[in-house]
Amino acid sequence: MLSDYVFIGLFAIVAAIFPFAGFAVSYLVRPKRPDPVKSDVYECGMKPIGEAWVQFKVQYYLYALIFVIFDVMSVFLFPWAVAYHTLGLYALVEMCIFLGILVGGLIYAWRKGALRWV
Amino acid sequence: MVLQAVFMLFSAMAVGAALAVVTNKNIFHSALFLVVALLGVAGLYVLLEAPFIAVVQVLIYVGAISTLILFAIMLTRRLMDASERQRNEQWFISAIVAVGLFIVLVLSVGQVHWPVVHTDVPENHLNRLGQDLMEHYVLPFEVTAVLLLAALVGAIVIARERTR
After folding, report:
1. What are the residue ranges of helices labelled H in B62-137?
2. Of residues B6, B68, B145, nearest to A64 (C-beta)
3. Where along chain A do its domains lie?
4. How large is the ipTM?
5. Would you list the domain boundaries of chain B?
6. Does domain A2-111 have CATH number 3.40.640.10?
7. Which tens digit of pLDDT belongs to each residue from A6-44?
8. Which residue of A has its CA nearest to B135?
9. With contact defined as beta carbons under 8 Å apart, do B49 and B65 qualify?
10. Which of A33, A40, A55, A111 has the fewest C-beta atoms lying within 10 Å of its C-beta?
11. Closest approach of chain B CAs to the CA of A27, in angstroms?
């Protein structure tokens, strides 16, 4: 029921406040002595090269796209899993066909090198 | 009373963020505001007592589609340049068309007779959804898999042409 969502709402509010509170407290407590090295962008301890606003590789997009496809798949998986006990063997077969088609796509992506990290 | 306040809050969140999407100068920030707008819509689904749709909204739109949009922006060098203008000379015409569409939608929603079914929402509606999906809508279900496969293969073919 809707009242169950009160806890989720409270949790969301606390989660939204938490980072701001952390930054505010550290702003009040910390000493403020900036120098060029200290205020530099942190990049794994190395000197950052160029801007952060650079063009990304197309591989990132392929990863995101494959993620979207299997995200949609999980949406279909969920009601099937909930109703699993009331369904027969045919439902399992149907889901196996469904997954089989998509796993075929994943194998295609793999073979074409879309999952190779560059 | 409280419900109405929560509804107002989510609506304001969705509409406000949507306005920020179209008025923001940096298209990357627009995409981030789109996430907030979609979360507001997810909140509205919760208020409509459609928790599964709300979860799907968060999972697909907030989680996956927005990531895809952000990556698409990051792929485009010209768009990542913050000095690029976000609107062209046709913004006025498109604003008129958008307002016209809004008026048509409001009028048609007001005139349609919406039938109300006086039965309760089944207790375990997700179970029901799973059963219907497996028993009555088998073909659309499997065709969905083929559709997703086509999207996957098509994207890979196009992306590989770009990298070459």
Report:
1. 66-75, 77-80, 91-111, 125-135
2. B68
3. 2-111
4. 0.74
5. 1-83, 125-164
6. no
7. 888 899 899 999 999 999 999 999 888 888 877 777 777
8. A91
9. no
10. A33
11. 25
